[in-house]
Specification:
The structure holds three protein chains of three kinds.
Chain A lengths: L2 H25 L4 H17 L14 H30 L8 E6 L5 H12 L4 E7 L2 E6 L7 H8 L1 H11 L1
Antiparallel strand pairs in A: 1-3, 2-3
Chain B lengths: L1 H28 L3 H26 L4 H31 L19
Chain C lengths: L1 H25 L3 H26 L3 H27 L1
Helix pairs in contact in C: 1-2, 2-3
Classes of the chains: A mainly alpha, B mainly alpha, C mainly alpha.
Protein name (chain A): Cation:proton antiporter
Family (chain A): Belongs to the CPA3 antiporters (TC 2.A.63) subunit E family.
Organism (chain A): Magnetovibrio blakemorei
Chain lengths: ~170, ~110, ~90
């Protein structure tokens, strides 16, 4: 079997696993007939939509990457709360202290899922919103622009998440 | 014990909906589309997650389904905001003087 | 205590809904309306969760989940349309 077929098979298997997990969570039961229906449905979808993205896509199954996922999640939740408190302060202060702009940053991540998660994380963290993803470049709308330079902006916005995502997806 | 968890759950509900309310206020106070999207997506994500967590405290047997809704929103909410931001930019909403920098429009192949 | 807090929370959610609705009516651009619509649907999802709690029926949560799915698709489709029109 050549590597192309192998990777496409792996992709289908990953999609199947994700769909099946979703089904089990949705039903909240482990009855045999429920599992059987979920199995068939997930299999059909996984075969029909080979290109579908899933959480496990290109995920490295290593203890260190699992640990990185846990750290990533904790860091993400912390950032989400910080983001909300900061926005709440901005919205509630009468002078509305904003300084919006769009900056360009670069990511080292190569995998599709890694980049997608990075873009999503950036959107949910303090004052930043991903407008466009183009090759290695991300365009970020920033409520309070702190750095116009690409390198500085990359350090401020991307580096925090990239640290973990790099170990998870590469 | 159960009573304490109920109170925590109710407080989480109030906190979550307070963030939703702030999001609503932000939609009116922010001057342009992009800032509104920022407020909209962040406050609703945390607000809904806190509300779902509160509901899970009040009804522990619903936790699994609430978790599923939470995970789903956590993933789709920022995605729809991104698609929306890009659409807003391309449809010409960028015309606003308050932006201090716009490195997206500076590109050679201008997309606007 | 708990009852009162739940009503306060429901009231806040209602307020958020009205504020987003006002933005939806005001606009001024299509993109503004879509942002408001996005917020509206998410507040509506919490509304469904509240309804589930008041009625004590877990089946409403499935409605919330399907609604979340459909509103996500809806926003994506409208955003595409706005983009195409430009």
């Amino acid at each position: 079997m050549n590597s192309e077929v192998l990777s496409s098979t792996r992709q289908s298997v990953e999609l199947f696993v994700t769909l099946f997990m979703f089904w089990v969570l949705l039903n909240g039961s482990l009855a045999p007939d429920t599992l059987a229906i979920g199995c068939v449905a997930a299999f059909v979808i996984a075969v029909l939509f080979r290109d579908g993205l899933s959480f496990l896509f290109e995920f490295r199954i290593l203890p260190s990457s699992l640990w990185a996922s846990v750290q990533y999640f904790v860091y993400f939740m912390k950032e989400l709360i910080v983001a909300n408190v900061r926005l709440a302060i901005i919205v509630l202060s009468p002078s509305l202290p904003i300084k919006p702009g769009i900056v360009k940053v670069r990511t080292r991540l190569k995998s599709r899922m890694g980049r997608l998660l990075l873009a999503n994380s950036i959107t949910l963290t303090p004052g930043t919103l991903t407008v466009e993803l183009e090759d290695d470049w991300l365009y970020i709308h920033w409520v309070t622009v702190e750095a116009v330079d690409m390198e500085d902006a990359t350090t401020l916005i991307v580096a925090g998440f990239e640290r973990y995502l790099e170990r998870m997806y590469g | 014990m159960g009573a304490i968890i109920d109170i925590i759950g109710a407080l989480l509900l109030v906190l979550g909906t307070a963030f939703l309310f702030l999001g609503g206020v932000g939609l009116h106070r922010m001057p342009d589309v992009f800032n509104r999207i920022q407020v909209g997506t962040k406050t609703t994500t945390l607000g809904t997650l806190l509300t779902l967590a509160g509901a899970a405290c009040l009804h522990p047997d619903w936790s699994l389904k609430l978790l599923l809704i939470g995970l789903f929103l956590l993933f789709t909410n920022p995605l729809s905001s991104q698609v929306l931001a890009r659409a807003a930019y391309r449809s010409g909403a960028k015309k606003m003087a308050t932006m201090v920098t716009d490195q997206f429009g500076d590109e050679p192949g201008d997309r606007s | 205590m708990v009852e009162v807090l739940i009503y306060v929370a429901a009231g806040l959610a209602g307020g958020a809904f009205l504020l987003a609705l006002a933005r939806f009516v005001k606009g001024p651009t299509t993109a503004d309306r879509v942002v408001a619509f996005d917020v509206l649907t998410i507040v509506a999802i919490t509304g469904i969760v509240f309804a589930a709690m008041f009625e004590g029926r877990v089946i409403y949560l499935d409605v919330a989940l399907v609604y979340a799915l459909l509103s996500f698709l809806g926003v994506i489709v409208i955003a595409r349309y706005v983009e195409r029109k430009a």
